[in-house]
Write the structure tokens for this entry.
Amino acid sequence: MKRVSLIQVGFGTVGGAVIELVLRHRALWRTRFDLDVSIAAVAGRSGAIVSDNPTGLDDSTLRDLVESRRSKAAAERPAGDSVADALPRIVDGGTTIVIDAASGDETANIDVRALELGAGAVLSNKAPLALAKADPRAKALWSHAGTTGRLKYEATCGAGLPVISTLQALLDTGDEMLEISGALSGTFGAIFSAVGTGTSYSDAVRDAQAQGYTEPDPRDDLSGLDVARKGLILARTMGQMADLDDIVIHSLVPKHLEEATVDEFLERLTDQDFDIGRQAAESLATDTSLKYIVNWSPDQGVTVGLRQIPRSTVLGALQGPENIVSFRTRRYDQYPCVVSGPGAGAAVTAAGMVADMLTLAHRIAR
Ligand SMILES: NC(=O)c1ccc[n+]([C@@H]2O[C@H](COP(=O)([O-])OP(=O)(O)OC[C@H]3O[C@@H](n4cnc5c(N)ncnc54)[C@H](OP(=O)(O)O)[C@@H]3O)[C@@H](O)[C@H]2O)c1
């Protein structure tokens, strides 16, 4: 039986769902793949719980951790142990894969260290992969990101949708990329679908926030930074070590509201209603849809912003929060290769991470 120990970094919405998936399916993996997957450590911002047992943390400890995070019982969360200290010990014990479902670039240190020690890393966290190219951690991470590398990151673009693996397969088979266009934000999808049916922009943002589509501070979505990071990851997957600073981002957060409180920002959103309403009316008249998209072309690199997309295209026809990416290539020229479906949510994102983990495990487990 091959064995794999996981180190779960971040056990919020996505990380918690990864833990639950592993608990639910590892018996199946034992019989189907002769693969024994255990969870050796779980880390949050305040520290980690690490098992000294080769069979990993027991099921009830893991379930309690996930529940405590959900009920926000901070006192029950891991504290004390350092995952960085435990990492070499766990790697010494056998094949190890770090599952980075945290937020922010701090976890890049763990991801890089794991790769240096010969472990695998699976990320849904975009921030480490979007670090400036001058940061040695960016170079270290991306040097392991090829199809046969030990770093996998499908869930960073379109959650569980096969966006990165499709791009890699196209490139690996010698296809030439002519253009990538994607609606990769469920938040923008929900907002501009509502605007397209006559809702004012400010009401659409408030509704999206109430339905949980946006971050608690909607500016985190409306700045376009998250979409730009996805565009950067697509470009870097194609071997272009661009930087976020190279990307032209059309932010929907006016400069003068960047520092305002969330309530003040939401109140002042009505200032943008006229301009966005005018663009929506123009779209209606020209049979296009208003969409916040990421685009890549060999000439322009990555651009991110609000565009009017013909409704006759699959991109323009898509309504609601679903994601879509269209790859136009030498082979898929007249009819692009399209990947589409739900691009966020705990279940699909966790499944994307677990699929990456299994691919790596098949390759590196001993
Ligand atoms: N939710 C989705 O549908 C989705 C889809 C695709 C990608 N993603 C990405 O997946 C990641 C996780 O998303 P989420 O929705 O699960 O977020 P979340 O619910 O806010 O959970 C984030 C978790 O990361 C932990 N964390 C933050 N910084 C950390 C650090 N430096 N070291 C260790 N743990 C740290 C947090 O710890 P505490 O418990 O201490 O707060 C929390 O457990 C994010 O990067 C997100 O962009 C999410």
Observations:
- The radius of gyration is 21 Å.
- The chain has two domains: 2-160+347-364, 171-342.
- The chain has a mean pLDDT of 94.
- The CA atoms of residues 124 and 156 lie 5 Å apart.
